[in-house]
Write a structure and sequence with these properties.
Layout: E1 2-6, H1 16-30, E2 34-39, E3 51-53, E4 58-62, E5 65-69, H2 73-86, E6 90-94, H3 101-108, E7 113-117, H4 125-138, E8 143-146, H5 149-159, E9 164-165, H6 172-176, E10 199-203, H7 213-226, E11 231-235, H8 240-244, E12 255-259, H9 263-270, E13 275-278, H10 288-295, E14 300-303, H11 306-311, E15 319-321, H12 326-337, H13 340-353, H14 359-386
Parallel strand pairs: 1-2, 1-6, 2-3, 6-7, 7-8, 8-9, 10-11, 10-13, 11-12, 13-14, 14-15
Antiparallel strand pairs: 4-5
Helix pairs in contact: 1-14, 2-3, 3-4, 7-12, 10-13
């Protein structure tokens, strides 16, 4: 099958949707399908072999953050040419409600279209303003996928219709085994507690308030004074100096920034921490970082938002704390750092729970949707010929 996948967000800035698309493309290619991805990207961006650029993106406020989207005459021209030259059996558009390449692709395509909805939000000014334009594109979609109940709820409330639920995937084998980063003992010490020490980890866009890093930093102010050997390992885009300015001077040397990391070092980072913390404040429909950390066997402490609660099976595969409560985060982290048996239990439960999200399962379910819309398309064509 020839499959064209449309990414709405720039490839230059890491994100859950981009990771989902990249992993899906690789899983489909491994299964014998031909795949091409079109994405916003700078001309000098390093893209995977299956991806092409539709041109540079521009920042647009979207879903509580700033999304880098591509929408204009140049992008539209490149999307039309990509569809024409690709000869795709199925076009798979991600986040078609975002004013980006997905809308342009829907307008240009005349074949079967599958759409995946990732976002969860209550209201969006961008969506509200563009609904009349979006509807002309959404009406051409033949099948809809939602990555979570939260994303499905947003779809139903904002646009009507419904969707089949297929969760985000994670390449579990990629995360299962890795050496810790240099200088970090990781969890290869038999799970023994290190009195007054340990490592908390965070991965995400540090300059995006809804990712909740500010909550973790406040908790670290308390924990750092109580535990003189405790360190904080941060990975993701953001201004290190700006973040450090929020940390008391006597604690700053125990906060380590990795910045943007390669896929390999990201896996190693998960294996370098005693507790992985996801302090997000909301706006998450799934939580791919949780699935990655689960696959790595990291004990997880996460905000009790609906999406995280579902992925962590109501606290069975990871501890939950009240959203935005730095004090509760500090207390829960201290309890986990002092309880190696509990961390070991959470690690085992996480590895078991994440199997449901392995790409071998998720990609197979996506292909079934492709096959369904293709069969329906063939049926319509045969019916029209018969008439």
């Amino acid at each position: 099958m020839r499959i064209g996948i449309v990414c709405p967000y720039t490839w230059n800035v890491p994100g859950g949707v981009q990771q989902h698309i990249s992993d899906l493309a690789e899983a489909l290619i491994t299964s014998g399908h031909e795949v091409s991805v079109i994405t916003p990207a700078d001309e000098d961006a390093l893209l995977p072999h299956f991806a092409v650029s539709a041109g540079r993106a521009v920042p647009v406020p979207y879903n509580g953050s700033v999304a880098r989207l591509s929408f204009g005459f140049l992008s539209a021209s490149r999307v039309r040419r990509w569809i024409r030259e690709g000869g795709f059996d199925v076009l798979h558009v991600h986040e078609p409600a975002a004013p980006s390449l997905g809308v342009l692709a829907c307008w240009a395509a005349d074949g079967p279209i599958v759409a995946t909805f990732h976002a969860s939000y209550e209201k969006s000014r961008v969506v509200a303003v563009t609904v009349p334009i979006l509807q002309t594109a959404l009406e051409k979609i033949n099948a809809r996928i939602a990555v979570s109940e939260a994303a499905r709820k947003t779809l139903v409330e904002q646009f009507g219709g419904d969707a089949v639920l297929i969760p985000n995937g994670v390449a579990t084998e990629r995360y299962a085994m890795a050496e810790p980063l240099p200088g970090w003992p990781g969890r290869g010490d038999g799970g023994q507690a290190r009195p007054g020490g340990g490592t908390l980890g965070f991965l995400g866009r540090m300059d995006e308030p809804r990712k909740g890093l500010q909550v973790l930093l406040r908790a670290f102010e308390t924990l750092g004074r109580e535990r003189p050997g405790l360190r904080l390992l941060l990975a993701g885009p953001g201004d290190a100096d700006e973040i450090l300015a929020k940390v008391s001077p006597e604690l700053r040397d125990r906060v380590v920034f990795l910045g943007l990391v390669s896929d390999q070092d990201k896996v190693r980072a998960y294996h370098s921490v005693d507790v992985f913390v996801a302090p997000n404040l909301g706006g998450e429909s799934f939580g791919i970082v949780l699935a990655e950390a689960m696959a790595a066997g990291a004990p997880i402490l996460a905000s009790d938002i609906e999406a995280f609660r579902r992925v962590l099976q109501d606290g069975r595969a990871g501890e939950l704390f009240p959203v935005g409560d730095a004090g509760a985060l500090a207390r829960a982290a201290a309890d986990l750092l002092d309880d190696p048996a509990r961390r070991k239990q959470l690690s085992a439960e996480a590895r078991a729970a994440v199997r449901a999200y392995d790409w071998s399962t998720v990609a197979r379910d996506v292909v079934r949707v492709y096959e369904t819309v293709l069969a329906e398309r063939i049926g319509v064509v045969e019916s029209s010929l018969g008439a």
